[in-house]
From TrEMBL:
Taxonomic lineage: Bacteria, Bacillati, Bacillota, Clostridia, Lachnospirales
GO biological process, one term: cellular response to oxidative stress
UniProt cross-references to Pfam families, sorted A to Z: GSHPx
Keywords linked to the UniProt accession: Oxidoreductase, Peroxidase
This protein's name: Glutathione peroxidase
Active site per the UniProt annotation: 35
GO molecular function, one term: peroxidase activity
Protein family per UniProt: Belongs to the glutathione peroxidase family.
Gene3D superfamilies recorded: Glutaredoxin (3.40.30.10)
Stored SUPFAM superfamilies: Thioredoxin-like (SSF52833)
Stored PANTHER family: GLUTATHIONE PEROXIDASE
Amino acid sequence: MSIYDYQVKDAEGKVVSLADYKEKLLLVVNTATGCGFTPQYEGLQKLYDKYQQKGLEILDFPCNQFGHQAPGTEKEIVGFCQLNYGVTFKQFAKVEVNGKNEDPLFTFLKKEQGGILGAKIKWNFTKFLINQRGEVVKRYAPAEKPENIEKDIIELLKEKR
């Protein structure tokens, strides 16, 4: 399996194939609107503004598993992110990233960057960087600020697809 074999629901409930993102550099993030890391939305949007035309896509998956810090509906979450952080990157339906109800996409991401059993996601704003060939190349801890990821994005954007 590759990341392109997965389908997810967007914030409007529409099924999206990740195959739509072939040859794009992806940053997949589990987010929350009521978290101490929520201001990272600003840094994520800055990265998106700067590199989207060069092939970066940010995929935002709200997750309410950690301290119930992503309350509300998908529509409310999208509204909050647009109003407070000017978010224009793709936002998806809420997911679980650990446990028996975890989204298969996150099972895959953890396996690719967490070993055979897939290291559990510890908190909101864990980030996965996927290169243009669909390979999960790096995992970043929640405290890792988006601006610190920029150097890796620049390097991967230089690579031939």
